[in-house]
Design goal:
Structural class: alpha+beta
CATH superfamily of the largest domain: Gcn5-related N-acetyltransferase (GNAT)
Helix content: 25-40%
Largest sheet: 11 strands, mixed
Strand content: 25-35%
Shape: globular
Length: 269
């Protein structure tokens, strides 16, 4: 695995994850400013309104001020993400009032080499989402990653449901069901050279029972066996990293998340 190549494609895949689906949802707008790109969904969530990158064309204090003013005028929160190959702009963002709130490990692996047997151990079944009602179940599980739950995520996926389930979508969602109930979820974002794994979530009352490993393992086996994907990339919080290490993924660099003010809601899991 050529790490430099994978890092570049991991960054492209994350941009696709942030922007491609959201830009097609009614009410959302995409703004590509050269040094960075941002998506404004019109919804009150810094998980959905995202500024991504500080590319080598350069980022200035005026750029940051323009973005901040855009979202401030609309009364919307946002986050700003930097990848390992971006021009480092953390000091500039800090000077302009944004605060580093998270370092997420970029991780990658060759699917054929991963240990994907954990999905058999949790006593459930994997289902690829194919109906809007299942998209809603994914959204409810994902929203519960925050306390209180981020209802803007539920609204977003209600608007995006038809785009997600249509043939040829680059966004594949998976539910892990136990006795017919969805208890965990994950997303694959399919691009040319890598497939991204994101939006892993487990229902709060079902955490700690291996369902996260089950849905992740099942989604990755689908990527390997049905999509014939070769390389998987993902972001790992400190809590999720041990699972990805067990599966055989390797760190490829840090992704940094900034917010313009203290986050009022906290991750629940």
């Amino acid at each position: 695995m050529d790490q430099a190549f994978v890092v570049q494609w991991a960054q492209r895949n994350l941009r696709q994850h942030f922007v491609a689906l959201a830009s097609r949802v009614p009410g959302a707008t995409e703004h590509d400013e050269g040094a960075y790109v941002f998506i404004d969904t019109g919804l009150p969530s810094d998980s959905l309104n995202v500024v991504y990158g500080a590319r080598r064309l350069g980022l200035t204090s005026a750029d940051v001020a323009d973005v901040t003013a855009h979202f401030s005028d609309r009364g919307l929160p946002f986050s700003w993400w930097l990848g390992p190959s971006d021009l480092w702009a953390g000091d500039l963002l800090a000077e302009m009032g944004l605060r580093l709130v998270g370092n997420h490990a970029g991780m990658a692996g060759t699917l054929e080499a991963l240990a994907l047997d954990e999905a058999d151990a949790a006593g459930g079944e994997l289902r690829r989402v194919s109906r809007p009602a299942e998209v809603a179940a994914h959204a409810q599980l994902l929203a519960a990653n925050w306390s209180p739950p981020d209802e803007a995520i539920v609204d977003f996926y209600a608007r995006a449901a038809d785009l997600v389930v249509r043939p040829g979508s680059d966004r594949l969602l998976f539910l892990w069901r136990v006795r017919g109930e969805a208890v965990a979820t994950a997303e694959l974002c399919v691009s040319a050279y890598v497939t991204g794994l994101y939006a892993v979530a487990t229902r709060p009352d079902a955490r700690g029972r291996g369902h996260d490993a089950a849905v992740v393992g099942g989604a990755l086996r689908y990527a390997r066996d049905e999509l014939h994907a070769e390389t998987i990339v993902t972001l790992a919080t400190p809590q999720a990293r041990p699972l990805f290490v067990r599966l055989g993924l390797q760190a490829i660099g840090e992704f940094h998340e900034f917010l313009p003010e203290i986050r009022e809601r906290e991750r629940a899991g």
